[in-house]
Prior knowledge:
The chain is α+β, with helices and mostly antiparallel strands. The chain has helices at about 20-30, 80-100, 160, 170-190, 195-200, and strands at about 15-20, 40-45, 65-70, 105, 110, 115-125, 130-140, 210-215, 215-225, 230-235, 240-245, 250-254. The strands form two sheets. A seven-stranded mixed β-sheet has the order 1-2-3-7-6-5-4, sandwiched between helices. A five-stranded antiparallel β-sheet has the order 11-10-9-8-12. Helix 2 runs antiparallel to helix 4 (about 170-190).
Amino acid sequence: ASCLHTKWLGKDLYCYETMDSTNLEIRRLAEAGASHGTVAITEEQTMGKGRRGRSWLAEAGAGIAMSFLLKPQIEAQNSSMLTLVTALAVNEAICETTGIRAKIKWPNDIIVNGKKICGILTEMSLQMDEINYIVVGLGINVNIDHFPEDLSDKATSLQIEGGRKIKRAPLAAKVLECFEKYYDMFLKTEDLSMLQDEYNKLLVHTDQKIKVVRGSKEEIFLSRGINHRGELLVEDEDGKVSEVSSGEVSVRGI
Ligand code: BTN
């Protein structure tokens, strides 16, 4: 913790050797009265959760598995933008600590060379339609030298891309510092007006064809970047632009 230069994030910091899931742990801590900015980080995660009910493996010592607790006074409908805020923070932290220039796949996968290096899972607890608390969890593949065959064309690590091992504590600290900065910018307008341009510069697939999957329906669009609410603008073959929001769809490059 001595290398952590934050104002409020991680002042309450819980470090574990092993844990089922840091998102679950932050929920438990929140229910027990933990405060805004509490962080949980673990060496190994045995029941890591991914998006869409998938699991997220975190082998002991190889990655960063970290979650934090937020209690923002914002409209519940605006909370999904925090995932995009987190993606910006992770991207900047990776660049500053390793020099690797990653990209973002909307809404929140961090990509290097077309493969995923970090995943983010934001969960919300509501009380009478208002935000009770939000859990932001992120998993970064750091010192992993290879992936099993079924993952090797989809996943990569900082070690594979940078050719050397990376110290995890300074990277984790940098993620928290960058998050504070971007979170402040988000709160000023409660949207991404100040962050949209930066996000769009990092976005993969812009002006390319993407497949948008809504339930069993698949459509092809041109990706046109995000708007200030973090929705992805997509253009159909008649040139008509519409928005998709992150809860409802999955987007794939084709
Ligand atoms: C994804 O599917 O891309 C999201 C993966 C999120 C994984 C992280 S690891 C730390 C935190 N705890 C969890 O159980 N999941 C998130």
